[in-house]
Amino acid sequence: MSGFDPKIAFSLAGQSAIVTGGGRGIGRGVALGLARAGASLHIFDRDASAAHETVTLLNSEGHKAHAHKVDVGSESEIEHAMEAVASMGAIDILINNAGLAIRKPSIDLPLTDWEAVLKVNLTGVFLCARCAARHMIANGKGSIVNLASIMGLSGGGLYPNISYQSTKGAVINLTRALAVEWAPHGIRVNAVAPTWVRTDFIKPLTDNPDLVARMNAMTPLGRIAEIDEIVGGIVYLASPAASMVTGHTLAIDGGFLAQ
Ligand SMILES: NC(=O)c1ccc[n+]([C@@H]2O[C@H](COP(=O)([O-])OP(=O)(O)OC[C@H]3O[C@@H](n4cnc5c(N)ncnc54)[C@H](O)[C@@H]3O)[C@@H](O)[C@H]2O)c1
To answer: Which residues are designated catalytic?
Structure first.
């Protein structure tokens, strides 16, 4: 008998997933969510001790997980780590989550800062996707989820963040283009565009109560997001439940982009 069974559609049993920037924040939450759906995990992070902490947490729940010290700005480190993952089995899922923001007025932004953000948020996403796709193509299937942002689909407005906003906008169209190019290989490529999420990433912003009040006021649901509110959408896009979804950017934004 046919019919939708959520236990099957959302199950990642037997699948292997890489989460970049999985050492803390959203990446750690996503790693836990994917593991609880049945996947084994590979945590790529430039902060080796943070990656190990996430692995310890995953192991404590009985999940299989490995830590890899990887800077997503380094092609050789990415390739080396992906080879190590591939030697243990298929690469089924890649979550391109590592990200960087340097919030400065555009008029004063040094080229080195611009290039540093592009290297992690755009080039890093491309390099990880390209390397994973080489393995996924050999296996005839795969699912990639990129972390974009509401800042990639709006002009922001509360503080200047030009390099971040440019890269997140680019990630959304990279997602569409790779989805089209790799669809014949059975690889789906999607993105999520979260609103502000309570992590260290925005601590300099959330430490300012006036700014938080303005973020809340700009959001129809009236508040910023917690990590777990972002995880479900990512697990969904990675899972067989989204088998007909590709090239899509899912806003998880409390209505920010609906205005
Ligand atoms: N927090 C938010 O408000 C928010 C909103 C929208 C989108 N995002 C996006 O979500 C993603 C995760 O954000 P977060 O809030 O969890 O950040 P975070 O700063 O809490 O965690 C980021 C993790 O990525 C790692 N990392 C950073 N640069 C790296 C690199 N070059 N190579 C490998 N690892 C690296 C860090 O060591 C850290 O473990 C980012 O892409 C960010 O742009 C965050």
So the answer is: 164
| pLDDT tens, per residue, the chain with 259 residues | 579 999 999 999 999 999 999 999 999 999 999 999 999 999 999 999 999 999 999 999 999 999 999 999 999 999 999 999 999 999 999 999 999 999 999 999 999 999 999 999 999 999 999 999 999 999 999 999 999 999 999 999 899 999 999 999 999 999 999 999 999 999 999 999 999 999 999 999 999 999 999 999 999 999 999 999 999 999 999 999 999 999 999 999 999 999 9
- How many beta carbons lie within 10 A of that of residue 250, not counting itself? 19
Could you tell me which CATH number the domain at 11-198+227-252 has? 3.40.50.720
Task: Give the Å distances, CA to CA, from 21 to 59, 68, 185, 219.
Answer: 18, 10, 26, 26
Pocket test for ligand 1, best of 43, 123, 201 (most atoms within 8 A of CB): 201
Domain edges within the chain: 11-198+227-252
Question: Where do the DSSP E strands lie in 84-134?
Answer: 93-96
Model confidence pTM above 0.90:
yes
